[in-house]
Write a structure and sequence with these properties.
Layout lengths: L12 H18 L3 H7 L4 H9 L18 H14 L1 H20 L2 H13 L4 E4 L15 E4 L3 E12 L6 E7 L11 E7 L5 E6 L10 E12 L11 H37 L1 E2 L2 E2 L4 H29 L5 H26 L9 H8 L1 H5 L4 H13 L4 H4 L4
Parallel strand pairs: 1-4
Antiparallel strand pairs: 2-3, 3-7, 4-5, 6-7, 8-9
Helix pairs in contact: 1-4, 4-5, 4-7, 4-8, 5-6, 5-7, 7-8, 7-9, 7-10, 8-9, 9-10, 9-12
């Protein structure tokens, strides 16, 4: 099930043309190769090169810095299209784009000039270094420090679950520049760390239930000397504020990717139900299957609409932690439910690797736990409600 791109309200002709180009790329070059690439476990360098040529690593980078300069709703639509073909491709773009957004929004002029043009072409790829062994969702509890040393910082610590960390060239690292600060958030900063500098080491790779071609690693910082020019925005103590702004974009991208995966699963279920026969007819003629498909389709459209709403709110400059959290929460849970229903429609065939639904079933849980777990999203949403914020969004009576 794929919406006609011309039906997306508010997209101009140029934006629709970019979206259609991505759709053709996915249909002609990605989908026919996914099963083989997954089976072989090979890194899809040829597809990555095509993505570089299409400018997909520059989705969140302004045109003056060599990127496509797309509005966030268009970015989200493209992430959905990539995930419909292969969610690994969306994963290559997501954290890279979050880093690009942070540099473009909060970086100094020198930082934008140094990194964004090469990030736009994919020559330079970026990764987020946030999570630590003892600090997942509670980022104020991080132990990584960046202590002043000459004209810069000495960076020490460990970061877990760094997506694309082995192949990334640039790391956006959350660290404590003032470990004694109270509250702790006032002493936390973001640093742009070039991975080639001494003291930065990829320590190990996590082997996951899915996304085998998307490396997820631990990175150690062992007294790495980082220049003062690496401090995002040139001002210490603003790291969490800068990061949370970027993570709203990341959560919208995750929501859009979950919608794309769910659309792929529904399509597989619809196709299989039209081919598989039971009791003399294809199973899509059985009411039980029809009811399941109807629920799947309704959930899919609802998830897509809330994701577009979040992208539009963020693009308009509104505070978007609540709506982006809602989109991520609802889209990821919806994706999981749709994939589960698709597997049920496939029956035993859905459990074997010869059918795409087996892979999709393994991929879906990532969106529930990634970019802030769904329980964390619920807490953010509840806090905003209790604060009496976003009343217009909720449509509550005055």
């Amino acid at each position: 099930m794929t919406a006609d791109p011309g039906s997306i309200a508010g997209f101009d002709a140029a934006e629709l043309a970019v979206l259609e180009t991505v759709r053709r790329f996915v249909a002609k070059e990605v989908r026919p190769e996914v099963m083989r690439l997954e089976r072989e476990g090979a890194y899809p360098e040829a597809l990555l090169e095509r993505m570089r040529g299409l400018g997909l690593f520059g989705l969140a980078i302004p045109e003056e810095q060599g990127g496509l300069g797309l509005r966030l709703p268009v970015f989200a639509a493209i992430m959905e299209e990539l995930a419909k073909g292969w969610t690994s491709l969306a994963a290559y773009v997501n954290s890279h784009s979050t880093v690009a957004y942070v540099i473009g929004k909060h970086g100094t002029g020198a930082q934008r000039a140094r990194y964004l043009p090469k990030m736009a072409t994919g020559e330079l790829r970026a990764a987020l270094c946030l999570t630590e062994p003892g600090a997942g969702s509670d980022l104020q509890a991080i132990a990584t420090t960046a202590r002043p040393a000459g004209d810069g910082f000495t960076l020490s610590g460990s970061k877990f679950f760094v997506t694309n960390g082995r192949r990334a060239d640039l790391l956006l690292v959350l660290a404590k520049t003032d470990p004694a600060a109270q509250p702790a958030k006032r002493g936390i900063s973001l640093l742009l760390v070039e991975k080639e500098i001494p003291g930065v080491k990829v320590a190990g790779t996590f082997h996951k239930m899915a996304y085998g071609q998307v490396d997820t690693v631990e990175i150690l910082f062992q007294d790495a000397l980082v220049p003062s020019a690496a401090l995002v925005g040139g001002e210490a103590g603003r790291g969490l504020q800068q990061l949370f702004d970027g993570l709203e974009v990341g959560r919208i991208a995750i929501a859009a990717s979950a919608v794309g995966l769910a659309a792929d699963a529904l399509n597989e279920a619809r196709r299989y139900a039209g081919e598989r026969k039971a009791f003399g007819v294809t199973i899509d003629q059985h009411q039980a299957v029809q009811l399941r498909l109807a629920e799947m389709a309704t959930r899919l459209v609802a998830a897509r609409l809330i994701t577009r709403e979040a992208a539009q709110a963020k693009a308009e400059g509104n505070r978007a932690d609540m709506i982006s959290g809602m989109a991520k929460l609802f889209a990821s849970e919806t994706c999981s439910a749709i994939v589960d229903d698709a597997l049920r429609i496939h029956g035993g065939y859905g459990y074997v690797a010869d059918y795409p639904i087996e892979r999709l079933y393994r991929e879906a849980p990532l969106y529930i736990v990634g970019e802030g777990t769904n329980d964390i999203q619920k807490l953010v949403i509840a806090r905003r409600i209790l604060e009496g914020q976003d009343i217009d969004l909720l449509g509550l009576p005055q």
